Amino acid sequence: MESWKTYQAEAKSMQDRVILVTGAGQGLGATAAVELAKLGATVILLGRNEKKLSRTYDAIESVGGPQPAAVPMDLAKVGEAEITQLGVLIQKEFGRLDGILHCANGFNHLSPLANQKLDEWVDMFRVNVAAPFALNRTLLPLLQAAPDAAVLVLGETHAFEPNAYWGGFSVTKSAQKNWIEITASEWDKFEQLRINLLVPGPIQSPFRLATHPAESKDTLPETGAIMPAIMYWLGPASRGQTGQTVFFNKK
After folding, report:
1. Which keywords does UniProt give here (predicted)?
2. At a CB cut-off of 8 Å and minimum separation 6, what does 190 contact?
């Protein structure tokens, strides 16, 4: 097993870092946000559901992490003005940004292509590719100013294994790899800045439950199993590694 899969972050290894986590209301995003806070990071929680964000916020406070911030935002509907305002907010309130974890997942439902609608494809593309691109672009000056900054995007197995009924979701997720490799190439002059794609594979999560309801959870790694990998690719140990696509649980 690759060492990054079992990486053990040192206590407070994220001390003084400010990390933006999208899709922070549930699943991998929420779990990662709490884990980052345990390691000392100040986490900016971004998601479309205020109640779910509040639960993650409370979980961070309960483990004694630095006070987080919660920003309700629907990436399927967000525009340039809201993203620009987010950059202004982060600069004003925190004065820095050391990383972004893109966990937001645009998914509608499994169905034949004949039943899928244009608006559904557009919404999924916005959440999975366009909005993350716009966030990176807007927040790039803050990332460039950080002494060590990492952007990590969580991918999806069906981007690499296209199958019937996955339609627009598979197509939009497949675009992540190109976007990340282009970004890494354009960022190669910034030694302290990196971007990578981590594909969790089959793992216990609300998304997996929705798409595979008959599957036994006991056959899958728990959500926490991937946290060492996320901490590796977001933390200082991954410095100098960029533009990579890595698979955690490839079956």
Report:
1. Oxidoreductase
2. 144
Per-residue pLDDT reduced to its tens digit, 123-160: 999 999 999 999 999 999 999 999 999 999 999 988 89
Higher pLDDT, 193 or 203: 193
Residue 12 belongs to domain with CATH number: 3.40.50.720
How many domains is the chain built from? 1
Structural domain of residue 223, as residue ranges?
3-247
Residues 6+ apart with CB under 8 A from 240: 191, 194
Give the residue from 84, 96, 87 showing the smallest Cα distance to 148: 96
SS3 (DSSP) at 162: coil
67: Cβ contacts below 8 Å, ≥ 6 apart: 42, 61
Residue 136 neighbours by CB under 8 Å, 6+ apart: 100, 143, 151, 183, 195
CB burial readout 49-85, b (16+ within 10 A) else e = eeebbeebbebbeeeebbebbbbebebbebeeeebee
* pTM of this prediction exceeds 0.90: yes
Is the separation of the CB atoms in 20 and 46 below 8 Å? yes
Tokens, residue 250:
């490839």
